[in-house]
Amino acid sequence: MDPDSVKSTLQTLAYGNVMAAAARDYQKELLAQEKAQASSSVNADVDLDELMDDPELEKLHANRIAALKREAEKRQSLTKKGHGEYREIAEGDFLGEVTGSGKVICHFYHREFYRCKIMDKHLKALAPNYLDAKFIKVDAENSPFFVTKLGIKTLPCVILFRNGIAGDRLVGFQDLGGKDDFSTRKLEALLLKKGIIDEKKKEDDEEAEYDESRRR
């Protein structure tokens, strides 16, 4: 046999063996990857099942739902007391209104005073956002007894009541820069500083979360 022909045949066989071995290695690698992915998927499913059955998570979820329910009930109770809106009350209802809630923001105003109308606008904008406080207004001209009793001499006058007791007051626009063009945010910041309203929460998001939990 021709030596060159034998050599060529041996080289061809060796190359074929190398390619076959490479193919086998590649196939093994693919199988190993598939097994790893399948194992990871199974583990993920097992972990998820374990989490779903975790008593601690169930307890946290139940506590959260209970807290949201209490908050919803509190909001409903406050709404019944007139919170969430800016209302005018008569002198005869004054004591019942200011003693019926923990925090009350009461604006003594005069119908003809331009600055009272400005204060009205800002308080009306804030009332729906701060359910923890009651926002009301009283016609000073028709409430002489309480105007005298509370020593009101300048309008607009906003008195802050806590548990039925008159505390801080905003007289005119002295604490708001002394100008008519102050912003609602400026009044909001002042009321927050005085502690008569609380830092606003994402109440709508919490209510939506509670409703979704009830549906589940």
UniProtKB/TrEMBL annotation:
InterPro entries: Thioredoxin-like_sf, Thioredoxin_domain. It comes from the Eukaryota. Signal peptide: none annotated. Residues 91-173 form the Thioredoxin domain. It holds the Pfam family Thioredoxin. CDD domains: Phd_like_TxnDC9. This is Thioredoxin domain-containing protein. It comes from Ambrosia artemisiifolia. The lineage of its organism: Eukaryota, Viridiplantae, Streptophyta, Embryophyta, Tracheophyta.
